[in-house]
């Protein structure tokens, strides 16, 4: 789906209104200047992951004991599911620690994307350890004629306890995610779709899948017990596998987006564009590039047509002041690169045109300087 293109009004130093335009993916008001745009502290994310880790580990052990005692395929599938979730929380803790390392010579923009790599591994773990094993248990239960469940009451007790523990973990994840969504003035679903912090959102998806799996396992056990047909337990295992595969795909695609040089939040892009247009030295914003470096960290690169009356020293001071102003105004802006260029430079115009298309490139260059 092609991105929308929205014009953003700005005010020039001479009082004339100008319009800047960039491709955006959603129509929402930009946060107010100076607003804190962070997506939750590392401490909040770490607590969320630790709560999920403790719940998943306790549940995994209980499910494993129940699966051995009762022979239930769906409980075996749920055991694999919980162990996969436990491994994922370890991945996320590694991600939080690794992404917090300061920038160095080898990584001048920091280690923010390390978080996305480990979150991607967590998505793969859900699929391999959880979905595939659950599918195996389901197929085995359906094809073996000797499958039966002994002492199903054990399963019901374990599933009930697991539901409570997973529910506590989910409530914690939902609380953090909703708080972050409110900070960004986004709806809950929109925030889950566009967030650059995979830790809390991964916990939300994992625990939602966990509760769904518990319901499916309980239903499979009940139907097996009531009807006497062994295939209900196998069907429950296959449905659990399908749920886990869907969650793994969703999380994998989200982290792929974050790892492939994604543009910053379109609202932030529009706000930065307007801010630059308001600077007294700026005649036109010729080009604007943004890049997500990690959670709450954005690189901004702008090509600006400056007032021709400025001397070399004045241009240097203006570049420093404008860059510092962007960092002070927008908490997510970590690095700023500004390049003074003439708005009619053919090389620059061709690069902008190849990126944004002919119509928008012409609009940016000519309409931004309209008197």
Walk me through what this model shows.
This protein has 371 residues and is α+β, with helices and mostly antiparallel strands. The chain is built from eleven helices and five strands, in the order E-E-H-H-H-H-H-H-H-H-E-E-H-E-H-H. The strands form two sheets. Strands 3-4-5 form a three-stranded mixed sheet, sandwiched between helices. A two-stranded antiparallel ribbon has the order 1-2. Helix 1 packs antiparallel against helix 2 (73-99). The chain is elongated and about 90 Å long.
| Alpha carbon gap, first and last residue | 34 Å
CATH C-level name of the largest domain: Mainly Alpha
Number of domains: 2
What structural category characterises the helix and strand content? Answer: alpha+beta
CATH superfamily of the largest domain: Cation efflux protein transmembrane domain
Q: How would a textbook summarize the main sheet? A: 3 strands, mixed
Helix and strand element order: EEHHHHHHHHEEHEHH
Overall pLDDT level: 80
Rg (C-alpha, Å): 26 Å
Shape: elongated
CATH topology of the largest domain: Alpha-lytic protease prodomain-like
The number of helices is: 11
Order the strands across the largest sheet as they lie in space: 3-4-5
Note the topology.
Blueprint lengths: L3 E8 L5 E8 L17 H29 L2 H27 L14 H30 L8 H32 L4 H7 L3 H30 L3 H29 L6 H13 L3 E13 L2 E10 L5 H18 L3 E8 L5 H11 L1 H10 L4
Parallel strand pairs: 4-5
Antiparallel strand pairs: 1-2, 3-4
Helix pairs in contact: 1-2, 1-4, 1-6, 2-3, 2-6, 2-7, 3-7, 4-5, 4-6, 6-7, 10-11
